Amino acid sequence: MNAVHSNPDRAGMRFVDQDGSDWGVDGYYLHKEYVKFIKLKFQESLFSISNQATLKKSQIMNSELSVQNIEQTESAAPAPVRSAGGVAVKAVERVLDIFETFHNEQRPLSLTNLAELTGIPKSSCHAIVGTLTTRGYLYSLTRPRSLYPTRRFLDIAHATHEKDPFVERVMPFLESLRDNSRETVLLGKRQGEAVIYLEVVESPHPIRYSAKPGEFKPLHSSAIGKALLGSLKESETRAQIENRSLPAITESTLTNADALVQDILESRRRGYFVTRGENVPDVWAVSAFLSINSEKLAVAIAGPRYRMENNVSECAQLLLATCSVISRQWALP
Fold it and tell me: For residue 185, which of 165, 169, 158, 204 has the smallest C-alpha distance?
């Protein structure tokens, strides 16, 4: 089994309990008693999950009533990062805009409505709608004359997602981490010059941090972004930060390159990374990175400041133990 080191400068350090169980948490500087505590807390939930390779994704949230979405209700919350770099293809963007408009409006729309809401010229919108209707992705209504999506897109998306070779396998561990921390758990990776969320397991609390898979976040202000920057060698981390713009996403965002570098280097030595309202006001998060099949990913626990502020250390220990178990699980044949 190849060891996964969260601290590239301290490779080779491992923690082994008295019974010989090697937890493989490298560079995290965990006290042995803390490790034993984590093992007792997690061995039943995590190792039972490890032996259930066919475990299906559970239904997480049905509590839509009176749920306060922290990210959406904060008036000072930043606009989402919509692009991770690369070349945008206008025709593809227009198709996605049409489906996102149906999602936002939640009602049948006429061709004129679609063109106005998406900003697509009516002639182009007519051509796209005609193609989508012919392929079975939209159906038409006559009174009033309008359009609405069929289940075709949904069924394709569900069938494709269920075969995801990575998320399907790691999802039970993320759910267990959510259950133990009682806060929202996020899995993400770098895509271009931003972070993309691959999976979000939301907290059961009515007031919680809320996000969606596929959302982009800035590298310099998000917990997952800071963890991924911290996964690089020190020289690469400095170069990445010094050569990029660091806009203030909130009043707490670190916009000085030297301060951000220092924060990330100190966090790497500590073994985990923390954001304190730097990406969303009043939302704190703790994160750590791991390597799987040569891919760098990061996991974060996020929640409102009033719950997270006094529980950062405990959340960090739960997070690090989970990342270690995921890495060990992936190393199995």
Answer: 204
- What is the mean predicted confidence (pLDDT) over 138-148? 88
How many residues are given for the chain?
A: 333
**DSSP-assigned states of every residue in 57-99:** PPP-----TT-EEHHHH-TTPPPPB---SS---HHHHHHHHHH
Distance CA 40, CA 30 (A): 15
pLDDT exceeds cutoff 90 at 287: yes
Q: pLDDT per residue over 82-115, tens digit each?
A: 444 455 688 899 999 999 999 999 999 999 999 9
Domains of the chain, each with CATH number or no CATH? 32-60+164-331 (3.30.450.40), 90-155 (1.10.10.10)
Give one DSSP letter per residue of 133-177, joined into a string: HHTTSEEEEETTEEEEE-SHHHHHHHHHHHT-TTHHHHHHHHHHH
Tokens representing residue 43 in the block = 């061995």
Q: Is-contact 99 153, C-beta < 8 A?
A: yes
Q: What is the pLDDT of residues 197-232, one digit of tens each?
A: 999 999 999 999 999 998 999 999 999 999 999 999
Distance CA 333, CA 326 (A): 13
Euclidean distance between CA atoms 169 and 54, whole angstroms: 8
State the average pLDDT over residues 244-267.
95
pTM here? 0.66
Residue pointed to by tokens 């949230």: 61
Picking from 35-44, 67-76, 273-282, 312-321, which range would have the lowest pLDDT averaged per residue? Answer: 67-76
Give the C-alpha separation, 333 to 331, whole Å: 6
